[in-house]
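Dear Dr. H.,

I hope your travels went smoothly. While you were away I took the liberty of generating a structure for the chain from your last submission, since the lab meeting agenda had it listed for discussion. I wanted you to have the full record in hand beforehand rather than looking at slides cold. The sequence, exactly as received, is reproduced here:
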Amino acid sequence: MRYRKDKKGNDLSVLGYGCLRFTKKGGAIDLAKAEREVMAAIEAGVNYLDTAYIYTGSEAAVGEILERNRCRERVYLATKLPHYLIRSVEGAEKIFQEELRRLRTDHVDYYLLHMLTDAATWERLRGMGLERWLADKLAAGQIRNVGFSYHGHTASFRQLVDAYPWDLCQIQYNYVDVTAQAGVEGLRYAHQRGLPVVIMEPLRGGRLVGQLPAEARELLRQAGRSPAALGFTWLYDQPEVTTVLSGMNSLEMVAENVETASAAAPGCMSQEDRGLVEQVRAIIQRCSKVGCTGCGYCMPCPQGVDIPGTFRCYNAMYAESKKAGRRDYLRCTAARRNTASASQCVGCGKCEKHCPQSIAIRQELRQAVRELEPPLYKGLRGAVRLLGLW
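The corresponding predicted structure, in token form, is as follows:
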């Protein structure tokens, strides 16, 4: 296993264990199976485990596995505060204490604000006293490092990076999402400011393995390259990346990812692999419906519509699967309180004046709404916001 430094000089394994996708059995986590997989990863040198309060059963499973195998001190634990569920620091304290009990530990190594999407939200949390609460937890050693996970825009990401002396951030990033969300620009911005970056969705929830267009799958087969290994290697090749999370749920997956990580030095990609990534990306883009590059020149929308995000999800319906695109769209429009559904577009045309691709944005948005907002969408969106499911 290879390691890269965090802000304080700690060695984090380049492969981290994302604990969201443990196999379920009878509606609950298959603990025995998860234990075999987690311990295989730890024995191979993985030392960064990522979970969250709202990952049903995950914190408790991780805590039991680590306690049973007496290996808490061999790993760095990262979990997250669902700030969208709290209204006071007392609420934060209640959730944090519950997380400590679930994890069977007296401290969290990396405590992230879950889905912090803009600086305005951080200012609201500061206003309720959360910054002082975090300072007290840091002083007491109950929290060792403070960070945030992110699903917003590049511009908002830069503002958020500069809003507090964070120890770490977590972004969605892969060879398809180069310009989406924080993107490569955000990755480099964080790195320039000495902020370690943890990568989530390196394979877009497995879709860059199991849901690639047939032409791309055939290209990889002919090249003798594993889709997963190619995606991870593309990330490891970049020195700005600290740790890449994988939601491993088989021993075979653990073994393959560990093997890939063993060669994970910046510059590890061959020219052939670089060219292969470009070919696969081109195929995915060719299967897309709208030629949006995610540059964001069309933003901000006066109505709050995330135009690049909408087109990304719309394209995913055809490059990956309809279910995947609609799920991402629900997350995009429901988890962000300040983001409107594409159906809220009033057709003002401001966006089209700034689009370097000359996309007929209003027309494409109308088509995207027909595909992305089926009859069940409104009810699901309301439920997600009400219950804080993301």
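Two observations you may find useful: The mean pLDDT is 91. The chain is about 45% helix and 10% strand.

With kind regards,
E. W.
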